[in-house]
Amino acid sequence: MDVATGEERGTTERVLTLLGLLQQRDVWTGPELAGRLGVTPRTVRRDVERLRALGYPVHAAQGVGGGYRLGPGKDLPPLLLDDEEAIATAVSLLAGASGSGAGGAVAGAGDAALRALTKLDRVLPTRLRHEVRALSGSVESFGGGGTPVDPEVLMMLARACRDQVEAGFGYPSGGEVRRRRVEPYRLVASDRRWYLLAYDLDRDDWRTFRVDRMTGVAARTWRFRPRAAPDAAAYVQESVASRVYPHRARFLVRAPARTVRAQIPASAAVVRERGSGLCEVLSGAGSLDSLLMHMLLLGHDFEVLDPPELGRRCHALARRLLSAGAGFPPGPDEQQASPGTGRDEQSSGG
Q: Domain HTH deoR-type, which positions (predicted)?
């Protein structure tokens, strides 16, 4: 039985090596593969049949330029990576997931890199991990981009989300760093930063955390049962765009949502469709005047929906602006309107 097991293991290893060779270049001749594998061409043909039986589309052609070719299939076949390829792939994914390199220029590339990295993490040998960590530290970026995060912290949180285990970390709150104990749910990448959506066990509610502000991140072995969770991307975007600010507001903007989204970063406002040529904007700021200034600079007609005090602030600023320009006549295409009259007063929400 030991001999049979050894033979089966040898055949399996040889077939996997054959698959790896077929993935390296377009065409191999039978003698070339036989030489690389140290077997006869007849054994190569048998191994090719084994790959076909497993669902790999290995094509064979006769004559000059012919040979064995791995064709495209309906499913992506498993990739076989040697040590150097595995290290290079992991380092590249770490760079993309942490916001370095060219990956930050592609929409959704950070999320895709992190998902791929968690899959690679399942099979990456322990002996290669220290090399990946050492090489990832040499990856730099230029030209601005997102706030850098520790790739190992990002990986630890990704594993905790994947394995459904509790995590703990220090996080600034009220001028001091406090220890938080959470059930991590999803990592979300914005145009500038990484965020963790998690259920805060001490506050008994969902919370959003900036990964670059975390300290002493540690994953526990205590597993949890997943809760009914909000849409991660939408929740984090609304948190970042409005909930963290002392003042929040809703506006009805007379412009298509796609137009306004192109003008406002996703981290600065939530833009929702509101019918043909209309959209609703939810945003936050440190002051009511800042909210109005940002909306004015978009160049579209808009109405204040909430809060009422922001509508009243519109009237106060309108009087101030009219007073500042009292010495100049209005332009030919401008309508003269006194403050406190017209459609604005009816729809300002005050």
A: 11-66
Cα–Cα dist 105/107, whole Å: 7
Q: Which amino acid is at 55?
A: G
Which residues, in sequence order, are bridge partners of residue 81?
Answer: none
Q: Which secondary structure element, helix H or strand E, spans residue 275, and what is its range?
A: none
User: Residue 3 in 3-state DSSP?
Assistant: helix
Please provide residue 296's backbone torsions phi and psi, each rounded to the nearest 5 degrees: -60, -40
- Express each pLDDT in 86-119 by its tens digit: 776 776 676 666 554 434 444 456 667 777 777 7
Distance of CA 307 to the CA centre of its chain: 32
Angle (CA) 192 196 202, round 5°: 140
| Range list of β-strands (E), the chain | 58-61, 67-70, 165-173, 176-189, 194-200, 205-210, 215-223, 247-253, 269-273, 279-285, 302-306
Q: Is 161 left (phi over 0), alpha (psi -120 to 50) or beta?
A: alpha
- For domain 14-70, which CATH number applies: 1.10.10.10, 3.90.1530.10, 3.40.50.300, 2.30.30.210? 1.10.10.10
Q: Across the beta sheet with 279-285, what order do the strands follow?
A: 269-273, 279-285, 247-253, 302-306
CATH top-level class of 151-234: mainly beta
| Residue range 41-84, pLDDT digits in tens | 999 999 999 988 888 888 998 876 678 988 876 555 666 677 77
